[in-house]
Amino acid sequence: MQNVLAIILGGGRGERLYPLTKHRAKPALPLAGKYRLIDIPVSNCINSGLLKIYVLTQFNSASLNQHIANTYRFYPFMKGFVDVLAAQQTPASPDWFQGTADAVRKTLWVMSPWKVDDYLILSGDHLYRMDYRLFLEHHHATKADVTISVVPVEESHASSFGLMKINDHGRVVEFKEKPTGQTLANMKVDTRVLGLSPSAASKTPFLASSSCRSPHEVPPARGFRARRHSRSHP
């Protein structure tokens, strides 16, 4: 896993959790006493053998930056780090981050010297356990350009999320942001392609992207590799 670099997105305003997010970003919210939400993806990375980790921050980031600086210190021989990349204005880019994709794009110049083969892009405010090694193995086996971890959801929740449509081979062929009506119905897929049982597939015929907040949430994540086509992964 030496050739993989993890990028954790430090979150936006977190308005749904206000006033808890009045003075801190959502990933900095306390969890189980002494932990923070950001510790979940960082822990998943470390336990998956991913030790090169950048956290991209911008909004209400003081508490988050302080927690990361005081918590994660690797021994020198481990060749690992958890570093904060805060939004900054430069002569070439005078604007702050304009979204998650823009945040990654504007910080690639910091990451490119590592010359890694894969970038694993994660949310900093999701609560889950995941072995990213299995995800990356699937990504390499399919020889995809981009692999996206998705969440099967029920129809009653589907219109609240960005939805993806896949073909019988798991390739992403369409994306719609919070569709309704007939557009929503057209986004149904046979989720048995992703390994769900027939009964589970009939209950969850939609695939939600990383903004998912369903009651049965399975954590989303994103991976990237410059290859041939995109695939989804449960």
| Global mean pLDDT | 83
**What's the β-strand tally?**
13
Widest sheet, order of strands: 5-4-1-6-12-7-13
- From the 3D structure, determine the CATH topology of the domain at 1-129: Spore Coat Polysaccharide Biosynthesis Protein SpsA, Chain A
Percentage of residues in DSSP E strands: 25-35%
Number of helices: 7
Oligomerization category of the chains in this entry: single chain
* Strand and helix order: EEEHEHEHEHEEHEEHHEEE
Q: What's the CATH class of the domain at 1-129, please?
A: Alpha Beta
For the record, give the distance between the C-alpha atoms at the N and C termini, rounded to a whole number: 21 Å
User: Rg to the nearest angstrom?
Assistant: 18 Å
Q: Helical percent range?
A: 10-25%
Poorly predicted runs of 5 or more residues: 211-231
At the fourth level of CATH, the homologous superfamily of the domain at 1-129 is Spore Coat Polysaccharide Biosynthesis Protein SpsA, Chain A
What would you say the CATH architecture of the domain at 1-129 is? Alpha-Beta Complex
